[in-house]
Design goal:
The structure holds 2 protein chains of 2 kinds.
Chain A lengths: L7 H12 L14 H12 L10 H11 L7 H14 L17 E3 H15 L3 E5 L15 H5 L4 E3 L4 H13 L3 E5 L10 H9 L1 H4 L9 E5 L15 H5 L5 E3 L4 H13 L4 E5 L7 E3 L2 H4 L11 E4 L4 E5 L2 H15 L4 E5 L2 E3 L3 H11 L2 E4 L8 H13 L8 E3 L10 H7 L3 H11 L11
Parallel strand pairs in A: 2-3, 2-4, 4-5, 5-7, 6-7, 10-11, 10-13, 13-14
Antiparallel strand pairs in A: 1-8, 6-12, 9-11
Helix pairs in contact in A: 5-11, 7-8, 13-17, 14-15
Chain B lengths: L6 E3 L14 H4 L21 H5 L7 E2 H11 L8 H26 L14 H8 L7 E3 L5 H7 L3 H9 L16 E2 L4 E2 L8 H17 L10 E6 L6 H13 L3 E7 L2 E2 L2 E2 H4 L8 H4 L4 E5 L3 H17 L4 E6 L17 H8 L3 H11 L5 H24 L42
Parallel strand pairs in B: 3-5, 3-6, 6-7, 7-11, 10-11
Antiparallel strand pairs in B: 1-2, 1-10, 4-5, 8-9
Helix pairs in contact in B: 4-5, 4-6, 4-14, 4-15, 5-6, 5-12, 7-15, 8-9
Classes of the chains: A alpha/beta, B alpha/beta.
Chain lengths: 439, 430
């Protein structure tokens, strides 16, 4: 059995390589990722050329140019890493000077497309099913080119029958195939939710392990621009409350690639919530991400930005907003730690709690409806495990408790904006701010 | 044995034997006209015997005509041999006695929850499932005990599953309505009506995919989807009829029309109560058969299953049958007319088969009594086994939620939660 999901140690090996200077083994308890530790060092050294730019991606890219020296043959690098991984050798210090942090950018769309392409070519049992995934090249062009490459028997255009084709996907998964079912938006998954929950999520339990369902349900989730109430709901909380499902929500291209590959290889049903507005955004990716066996672990959050004063948790598009808010807060002297949840179920409670124990304040950000949402779960988790560490009540930022309005100004008010996050963080830090209007 | 009229209707467009392979609807595996054909076209079968009986342009043929033809042609005029007869009898008796035992156990408090019994409908289950190989798939509804038994799941395992014990076929985690068996290829057990139909279509899809894309030789499993008359008004049913016919999946849709959906009469709920007519609307044959007569069901089942195995696509079979008990053991069954119940009790499939066996001297009274006794002993043993089996341990509560044990994520100590030795100690907090 190949080790598909990275174990935790891999990140630390990369980290060793990336910083180049550090020798020795990063202790287990630290939750660092390579990109943000590099960034942190840039900021500390004052060598980053970030101006008060609101574009996370450009500032990131610029900072990498300052970093030296650049790549070793990254391909050999990753081969050696794979060798080490398989042999389970953890070097006391790493001979790798530097790790490729080249300026290669990739949009989320390209990331998803390449992930699907690679998984389909690696395993002939993987097939795609959904409306317009074939000849139309994908409703949002995520599956572009795959019909020509793999043919109509592996990229199936279905009729408009969500309940029917979702059930067909589940039935096929019962017998060992690995379908990737696309919903044009997750709003349409409500027509098929019986199959996602009752036949997919619960089957392994009901059959006592005899039947597993290695299926992935993917599609855009949450609000887009001006699409109205029935096309804008966020389903993270709905699916994440159901045992037997894994729910993932990527933010950047790296997340998208790694998590989709992990989802396709996973033997359980995975709900993969993308975001339509992120499809066109590009993020820098390292060569490790481009490797065809790149996978991210399911159930582990990523600390996008380290901080000391307040923890901000977010997923999907809200991570971008949270990072912008963190920039603004940094100028006002509040150092915010931004956690990209990545995995809504299972929720990485240990990372969140460790962060709250460090900063003592928490702001949860999500796009969906507030009642019974992801933020409510995080808040309770923190209260259960780290109550004594909280210095302020948990601030919960969510979408407005109304169906999404159509008018552009109302829509802007119904979705959290960067200013809302900034205000909430300041409230958590007991800085006086005028209260925002509540719906 | 009375031969009531049964109709065998092909789609009005073209009779199957003359179906041309140029028509895009029937030629490629998955629809598009724009991509070139990659796979074998479905095998065009030789002239079928039924079309010789209907040499005129009318495609409607009565099975009774076919049966008469067979009788003239074959030397013996019997539909089954002695061995087959005894096998069928034993299976139906097993189903009937098992369900009666379930009722007894329920009223003694050993079984609980929702229990839906199959008394009276055994002909459908036996008639169809006894033609299947072990690798073929059966997808059922909540009325699935007898489908499980016919498919081969041992009575002991089914009984202990119903008692909720750890030795059940799903270790007590499924229950009456969710019987799954990977070994016997039984996919439960779906409580929502209509839920099993797309899943069955998917299983049929998987066997076709494995044959044509993965090129596995001998992957010709047929799927049977059992469901009731109420389900035929559900949207998922139509979605799957469409897709199964579109992609020519090896599936047989078996409607167990027992005329009642809990307390709702089929005639009150359906605009056109003749369900078999819905098949031709989607391009597949629709057949209506007397579901209280196991031999007639067998005729039709053989044809439909072989059609699917040859790759010619799906069939819709409506079996007119009746359930002698209420919808479930909690149903007082007050709405059904006693005269109707008496009428169908007179058409009990087991009595009819017995009469056939005696009349045609295929079996004697003693042989059948011996089978009865054998089944009774089997069931007593099953009940004893289930009684003595242990309840599931506390640690089983959290098991099998995910196939990937790391699915519970990473715990506070940074390791996967499932690696914590206390993980399955039965605490609800994860």
């Amino acid at each position: 059995m190949k080790l598909r999901v990275e174990n935790i140690f891999d990140k630390y090996i990369i980290n060793l390589g990336a910083c180049g200077i550090r020798c020795g083994f990063i202790p287990f308890g630290e939750r660092r990722s390579e990109s943000d530790s590099i960034r942190q060092r840039e900021i500390d050294a004052g060598t980053s050329s970030t101006s008060s730019s609101y574009y996370y991606s450009t500032s990131f890219r610029v900072s990498f140019i300052h970093f030296s020296p650049l790549m070793l043959a990254s391909f050999q690098h990753s081969k050696m890493l794979r060798a080490i991984r398989h042999k389970n050798i953890l070097p006391a210090f790493s001979a790798f000077r530097a790790f490729s942090s080249s300026a290669k950018e990739m949009t989320v769309r390209e990331a998803l497309n390449s992930a699907l392409d690679e998984e389909m070519s690696a395993d002939p049992k993987v097939f795609l099913m959904g409306e317009e995934v074939g000849e139309y090249q994908g409703a949002y062009k995520i599956t572009k080119g795959l019909l020509d490459k793999y043919g109509p028997e592996r990229v199936l255009d279905t009729p408009i029958t969500e309940a029917g084709f979702t059930g067909i996907g589940v039935g096929a998964a019962y017998y060992g195939l690995r379908p990737v079912v696309e919903f044009m938006t997750f709003n349409f998954s409500m027509q098929a939710i019986d199959h996602i929950i009752n036949s997919a999520a619960k089957s392994n339990y009901m059959s006592a392990g005899q039947i597993s369902v290695p299926i992935v349900f993917r599609g855009p989730n949450g609000a887009a621009a001006g699409v109205g109430a029935q096309h804008s709901q966020c389903y993270a909380a709905w699916y994440a409350s159901c045992p037997g499902l894994k729910v993932l929500s990527p933010y950047s291209s790296e997340d998208a690639r790694g998590l989709l590959k992990a989802a396709i290889r996973d033997p359980d049903p995975v709900v993969f919530l993308e975001n339509e507005l992120l499809y066109g955004e590009s993020f820098p990716v390292s060569a490790e991400v481009l490797d065809s066996s790149f996978c991210l672990p399911i159930g582990k959050a990523k600390i996008e930005r380290e901080g000391k004063d307040v923890t901000i948790t977010a997923f999907s598009k809200m991570v971008g907003y949270a990072l912008k808010a963190a920039e603004i807060l940094a100028k006002e002297g509040i150092s915010a730690e931004v956690i990209n949840l990545r995995s809504i179920r299972p929720l990485d409670r240990s990372t969140i709690n460790a962060s709250v124990r460090k900063t003592n304040r928490l702001v949860t950000v999500e796009e969906g409806f507030p009642q019974h949402g992801v933020g409510a779960e995080i808040c309770t988790s923190v209260i259960e495990e780290s109550f004594g560490y909280l210095d302020a009540p948990v601030e919960r930022i969510a979408g407005a408790d109304v169906p999404m309005p159509y008018a552009a100004n109302l829509e802007r008010m119904a979705v959290p904006q960067v200013e809302d996050i900034v205000r909430a963080a300041k409230r958590a830090c007991y800085r006086s701010v005028p209260l925002a209007a509540t719906a | 044995m009375s031969l009531s009229a049964t109709k065998f209707v092909h789609p009005i467009t073209t009779p199957p034997s003359t179906r041309s392979s140029d028509k895009p609807l029937f030629s490629t595996f998955f629809g598009s006209n724009h991509t070139k054909l990659r796979f074998n076209k479905p095998i065009v079968v030789a002239q079928r015997r039924s079309s010789s009986a209907a040499s005129t342009s009318s495609p409607v043929v009565a099975v009774s005509d076919v049966v008469k033809e067979k009788k003239l042609k074959s030397a013996s005029n019997l539909l089954i041999t002695k061995e087959e007869g005894l096998v069928i009898y034993e299976d139906m008796i097993l189903g009937r006695f098992f369900e009666d035992m379930c009722a007894q156990m329920y009223y003694r408090g050993k079984m609980f929850g929702f229990v839906h019994l199959y008394n009276g409908q055994e002909a459908v289950s036996t008639g169809f499932i006894k033609f299947l190989k072990k690798e073929d798939y059966v997808v059922s509804t909540y009325r699935d005990h007898v489908h499980a038994l016919s498919k081969g799941v041992p009575a002991r395992e089914v009984m202990s599953e119903l008692f909720g014990k750890a030795t059940g076929c799903c270790r007590g985690q499924g229950g009456s309505m969710h019987m799954f068996s990977k070994q016997y290829n039984l996919l439960g057990g779906f409580a929502f009506i209509g839920e099993g139909i797309p899943v069955a279509t998917g299983a049929a899809f998987s066997s076709k995919y494995r044959r044509e894309v993965l090129k596995e030789p001998g992957a010709d499993e047929v799927t049977l989807a059992f469901f009731g008359d109420g389900t035929c008004n559900n949207g998922q049913f139509y979605e799957c009829l469409n897709m199964a016919a579109l992609w020519k999946l090896p599936i047989v849709f078996v409607v167990e029309n027992n005329l009642w959906a809990i307390g709702m009469s089929h005639l009150r709920a359906t605009s056109d109560p003749q369900i078999w007519k819905k098949g031709p609307a989607f391009g597949m044959p629709g057949i209506h058969v007397d579901g209280m007569d196991v031999l007639k069901v067998r005729e039709v089942a053989k044809e439909a299953i072989e059609r699917a195995r040859r790759g010619e696509g799906p069939t819709l079979v409506e079996c007119e049958t009746y359930r002698f008990r209420g919808h479930s053991l909690a149903d007082p069954d007050e709405l059904r007319d006693p005269a109707e119940k008496a009428h169908y009790a007179g058409r009990d499939p087991i009595t009819a088969l017995k009469k056939y066996l005696f009349d045609n001297k295929l079996a004697s009274e003693q042989e059948l009594k011996a089978i009865d006794k054998k089944i009774e002993e089997l069931l007593d043993d099953a009940v004893e086994f289930a009684d003595e089996s242990p309840l599931p341990p506390r640690s089983q509560l959290l098991e099998n939620v995910f196939a990937d044990p790391k699915g519970f994520g990473i715990g506070p100590d940074g390791k996967y939660r499932c690696e914590d030795p206390k993980f399955t100690q039965g605490t609800a907090h994860v």
